[in-house]
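Lay summary. Proteins are chains of building blocks that fold into shapes, and those shapes determine what they do. In this project we predict the shape from the chain. Here is one chain we studied, written as its sequence of building blocks.
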Amino acid sequence: MFDPLAPNLMTASGNWNVLNYRQPADNSIPLYTSYVNNKTYKTLYGIPDDYTYESCNNDMYTNFWDDITMSFASDVAYLIKNTRVLLYNGQDDFLINSMGTERWIQSMNTPEVSSWIKAPKQTWVREVD
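And here is the predicted shape, written in a compact code that computers can read:
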């Protein structure tokens, strides 16, 4: 792991996945990575073919370490107002839970967020064997 706290969380949790507390910890690449790098997805959302999403890039994480405790709500509000944005959050994420994320989005208080609050929500379910 790239965060000194993460191994302690996994140990404290009994070696359960902090990104999905319903599963044991593993170091595999998340399934959404292949989805967001899929050509159909990129075309749908206007993402250039040469852009590749990489989950938990260690260099990015290290370079932005000091920014973790800072609020970027105004930056995200600007992006929501001026571009199409997908805010992805798993309901079983121990570190960044859905309820906290929804409250954070609602706190931005922009017309776009007001529309989002009123819009129907969709649950994406991944079937597990």
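What the prediction tells us: Residues 53 and 128 are 23 Å apart (CA to CA).
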